[in-house]
Amino acid sequence: MILSRLIPALGLALAIGAAPAGPSLRVEPQTGLADAPLGVRAAGLVPGSTAEVVATARSGDALWMSVATCRADGGGQIVLATCDSSAGTYTGIDPGGLVWSMLPQPPGKKPFALAAGKPIDYTIELRVAGSVVATAHALRARVLAGVALRPIVAPFRGTLALPPSAGKHPAVILLGGSEGGDAMTDVAQLLASHGYVAATVAYFGLPGLPQQLVDIPVEDVGTALTWLSQRSDVDANRIGVFGISKGGEFALLAASTYPRIRAAVSVVGVPFAMYGVNPNGPAPNAGSWSRNGVELPFVPPDAAAGARLHELIVAGGKVSLGILADASIEKNPVAVQRAFFPLERIAGPILCIGAGDDHLKNSARDCDIAFAYLSQHKHAFSDRKLNFPSAGHDVLTFYLPTLGYDEFTLSRFTEIDGGSAESDGRANEIAWPAILRFLETALATKA
């Protein structure tokens, strides 16, 4: 009797259908490299309703948070990549906005710090009217599992990053800037995760190396080039060079010196030799680079701008170091011409990336100068220039929260690097994929 009464009720329930599911949230991929966007998708919302997508991650003891305010589409879904955020830590359409716009809680301006060897663990929440209605998690690593990292002590100093797959690979030589030391290890790991054998070259600032960025021999890169070419896991015909800041300058010099280099990436570098750098600032009577033991012609520091910069540093506060580099370049065109690298000799394409709000030097102008030279000398490759008008010197932020990248506090003053969290974060979203595409094309397997 009871069963006979239940069967009609069960049929009625099946006909009506189960109660609709509540809001849901997922992130794709859940685990990926740092340069894989957080592919956030929400469903089950009221069509046309507003919800917040909130991301949190820990840096040491600090909790960092970002918020995008999105409107559900006609199907009750939110796709972060196409969400036109109306409020939160960023506005507009920006697939990477949840990462670069993160802010510490409580507020501060100490940059986000990575835990060595650990991925960033993001918690993503979907909030409606202030209440959390769904949660998801995502991990973003700086290196793919299986990438091998090995120190190089001879015949040069640096770090080797090897991709997990077997066979011959394209290779990239990496050059850091005036910070010295072995500064490009993280970039090497990321490139190895994309299938490159990557070798950093530390050219000053470590024990046993020059302690000043003065008369650094271009042969440091030549040694690394020969060493890589002889490895069984490297295709010797597919080697490029990639440098940032002073390393971008070094990269263009090296590529114009060694025709075995088939691609050159210069990020906020200059296409000619500048004055050297010592612990107290610019070296007035020495250049940065040498070849065969002979110092290369260089642009000397402008005396008046140098004196003014010294006054600003002594006074403390915020200082734009670029007043010296810019004056030195603009006031001495003869020295610039004499110090120019023979870019037409580079046996492959060049990618030059500049920033219009760079306060260490006008790197957007420097890319323009390089490309005017390349055009005049009819460089026979598909060179590319990317200038970001609002970005600062740290145009490559490598998918980290960018708060604090516009300034760098030193013992006596604060160095202004330029840009902003938004402009640098958004520039990185274009610049890094462009670098990967450029290297893939320039170092493609030749028929």
In short:
With 447 residues, the protein is α/β, with parallel strands linked by helices. Helices cover 26% and strands 31% of the residues.
What's the gyration radius in Å? 26 Å
Give the CATH superfamily of the largest domain: Alpha/Beta hydrolase fold, catalytic domain
Instruction: Please report the distance between the alpha carbons of the first and last residues.
Output: 81 Å
How many domain regions?
A: 2
Number of strands: 27
The count of helical stretches stands at 10
What is the CATH topology assignment of the largest domain?
A: Rossmann fold
Could you explain the architecture of this structure?
This protein has helices at about 1-15, 95-100, 185-195, 220-230, 245-255, 305-315, 320-330, 335-340, 365-375, 420-440, and strands spanning about 25-30, 30-35, 40-45, 50-60, 60-70, 80, 85, 90-95, 105, 120-130, 130-140, 150, 160, 170-175, 195-200, 215, 235-245, 260-265, 275-280, 280-285, 290, 295, 320, 350-355, 385-390, 405-410, 415. It has about 450 residues and is an alpha/beta fold. It has two domains: about 25-140, Sandwich (Immunoglobulin-like); about 150-440, 3-Layer(aba) Sandwich (Rossmann fold). Strands 12-13-15-14-17-18-24-25 form an eight-stranded mixed sheet, sandwiched between helices. α6 runs antiparallel to α7 (about 320-330). Residues about 1-20 have low confidence and may be disordered.
